[in-house]
Each structure stands twice: as structure tokens, then as C-alpha cells.
What we know:
Elements (H helix, E strand, L loop, with lengths): L1 H11 L18 H4 L3 H20 L4 H6 L6 E3 L10 H4 L5 H27 L7 H26 L21 H18 L14 H14 L3 H12 L21 H4 L15 E5 L17 H5 L27 E3 L1 H4 L17 E2 L22 H7 L3 E2 L20 E5 H14 L3 H14 L12 H12 L5 H7 L3 H8 L3 H6 L11 H6 L12
Amino acid sequence: MKRILILLTGIVLWGCNENDLKETPLSNLSAEQILTSPNGFRMYLTGLYAASREEMSMGDNTYFALNMASTDIGSDAGVEYVGLRNYLTTFTPTNNNLNILWNWAYTAMIVRANTLIHYGEARPEVWVTEKERNQVLAEARFFRAYTYNLLVNSFGGVPLVDQISSSPKNDYVKSSKEEVLNFAKTDLEFAVQWLPAVSEGNFDGKLTRGAAQHLLTEVYLSLGDAENAVRISSELISSGNYKIMTGRFGSKATQPGDVFADLFLDGNHNRASGNQESILVWQFENNVQGGGSSLNGNVQIRNWAPFLSKITDPDGVAMLVVDTLGRGVGRVRGTNYFLYDIWRENPQDMRNSSYNMRRKFYYNNPRSKYYNQLVEPKVVYDDTMRNIYPYSRKIDGTPWANNPTSGRTAKDVMVFRLAETYLLRAEAYFKLGRTGLAADDINVIRKRANVPVIAADKVSIDFILDERARELTVEEPRRRTLVRLGKLVERVRKYNLLEETRSSIQDYHQYFPIPQSVIDANYGQVIEQNPGY
């Protein structure tokens, strides 16, 4: 569009003196001008970090609708969100959330990463040392690999764009899933080599080698390279830079609670709090440099929590939205599999404690004669599906700008955590037939949760997925994990709460359709639609 506007301006001013057309802008924030010094590169990187957080904030519910709803752990929650429950009518090439995801990936993440890489390599005079340059390139290449890994586990094969373009392009070609994964692998191997072991300057949320090792483990697994997945995850686990937290720590260490809850309390996500388990954390805190999002904070509570303000006591007095209850709107309700089934064998599991799962609710309006009394079981469908149900307290947090009705919190979000690294290595060991070592890794997590250890013969991909549900629900983009393991369709049919969801999902729904707008805009070359759509 910019090039068209320039052309039209040239036609209008054709008769002017050439010198009249020369302009000296008072300011210019183009990459050409910014990326001329190390500080310029660091400033541009800040924009890439900010864009990465938008994965969760873009579209308000896009991240949750595409990664949690209609899976084995989450169902759409109420009549208003009926559009999330049917695979045949929801996941079509014109789905707006798919457009939002695709545009974020290519226009916010990949283009910025490519720009940093292009100018970082093209301007050697900028850098004092090779290390300085390569650390910047490593950050950009990590984010590019992260985005391509996300795309592969959403759409399968996608166009592989590794250059910046000065003119419109309409002839992109779809690369295979394996080609894209191998490209991401190369980026991550570079990042592992050049990212620092710990954040220099102790900046919260800054990339480290551990983040690249963690993601590279997942990419190796996707490529069927379990040996290298074991190697790189073992390097991370044995580095001494991270550990599974087993003792109380952080802002409420002296108050009632447990160590698993400590991991997710306000202010406890980053290493400064004593948390040595977190590897990569999105920074959403209010009033800190680089915090927040386009939606003013973390939107987990809005999407995962029930619409409690719709609940009334027997006299019709409504509950209040206060403190950590926040203003959920019930977009994603946990399935019975997540809320009940996975805890039945060991209900005392720390991850199921009252500090980690909210299962009881009390009338909280002082005007109610039922004030502080337990809310009785509800029988109306919309109540039980959307307005009141158990949920993970990982989403609890200080309301954004102290406004609990905003549906946002000023709370950071865990992206990668060492517990998941152990589960990834367990997966790799299982695929190598080394089930004893796989059980050992799973048992590291189970011991912290105070549940019995498992024997080698109990390890399976389904058991690992069950353990991931107990350990990582809310944190992990569940659908992408199921896609990566080829388990999406099977487990939705088995565990989703809604018959409509279970019966509508088809084998081809393993991947999302390519957005129709992308296919139409690429008129210089055919981008084949994914099978079934």
C-alpha cells in the first residue's frame, strides 16, 4: 500500500521541480535508521519481545480459543461461545482467529526477526565484537524458530520466509513440515551456541541458552531425533542454572500454601524471587519497563475463569467481582478429564490442593444473607458450564490497575519451565525404549507433587500427556502439544466434555486450514490448502 501511495503522489506532482520533492524528515523510525548501533538493535529487539507476548493477548481470546478450547483439557464454556465447540463449523479457512494467528506470526514476529538478522549480518561495522553481534542474532533467531515451530504445530507445512523484501511479494511457496522444522533447528542450534547461560544484567524475561535448549529439545522430538533431544535436554538439566523447586520461596513463603502454588504467585515467576525453575517468562507486570500488553496485561483470568458475577444466591443477590476472583467470562471450561479424572488415583496430589485448584466458592456479597456461605451446587446448564466451575489457580493474580472487573491481571506468565524439560526428556527416553530413565524423569515431577512414583512399565505417551495435564495446564498451548504427538483427534474424541465437539472433529482437523485470505493474496503462486478443507 505504501508503494502505491508513493506512485500516486508522483503522478500528482509530476510537473514540480525535482528539488521540491526532496524531503528531510524530522524523525525516521525505520529499521534502516534504527539498526545502525548496538543500542538501536537492542531497541528493535524490545519490539520483538513485546510482539512475543502478544501471542497470548492478540484478539483477546485467540490464544485460548485455538490452544485450550475444544481439546482434551478444555471445552467451550457457554451458550455465548457456541462457535468454539464444533470443529466442522469453527475451524474453516475463514476463521478470524486463524487470520489473527497467521498475521501475528508473519507480520509481527518473523518480519522483525528477519529484519534484525539481515541488518545484523549486513553491517559488520556496527559491532565491537563477534560475540556482541551473535548474541543479538541469537535472540532474533530464537524468536524466528519459536514462531516457525508454532506454525508447524498449527498448520503443518507453511511458507518459509527468511529474508526481508523491499517490494510486495505474491508468490510464496509452502515448505514441508520437515523443511520448516529443520530450518528452526538450525536457528536454535545457533542460539544455543551464542545466548548467555544466564541473563546478563539480570533482566527479567530475557532470553538465555536454557530457553533455546528447551525449545530445541521439542524440535528434535518433532523431527524424530530422540537421541539429540536427550542430549540437549540433559545439557540444560545438568547445567546447574535451573532446578526443580522443592522448598517454599517467594512473596508468601511464610504463609499457608505449597511450593507448587509459589511458582505462580504474583512476583514469583522470575529468578529474583528465588524461582530457579522458570526458563522463559512473559513479562506482564504493570508499571515495569516493557510490561503489559495491547490489552493492558495478562488475560488468562478472563478466558479460563468462570463468569462468577452471573451467580446469584437463592434470593437473587449477585456475587461480586473482587480481588483474585477477577472477572472471568468462562470462555474455556476445564473438561471432566482435567478437573476430575486425572486426580482420582491420587487426590492428595499437591497440584490438586486448594492452593492450586479452586473448587469451592463462597457467597461474597455483604448484602446477601448467605454471605460467606458455600455456594450450593448449581443445576442450570449455563451456570455449570460457564458461570461456576473449578479452575486452576495459576491464573489468580493482582487485578490490572487494581480493577478486578477488567478481566486482566498484572501477572507474568510462565512460557518454559524446567518441569516441562524433564517431561520432554522422558518422552525422548520413551521413544528410545529407555523406559526406566523415562520413569525417573517423570518421577522427579511426581515426587515434588507428593504422589507415588511410577514404574517403567507404566510409561506411555498417554501417561506423559496425563502428567503434562496435571503439571502444565494453563501454561502449555495444549493443542500444539497434541498435534506434535499426533494425539489431537484421538484425545478430543475421548476426553472433550461436549458430544458436539467429540463427534464433529475429523482426522483432517489434525491441522488448521491455511487462511483463505493468505491463499487469495498469494496469486503469483498456488498455496495448497491443507487436506480436508
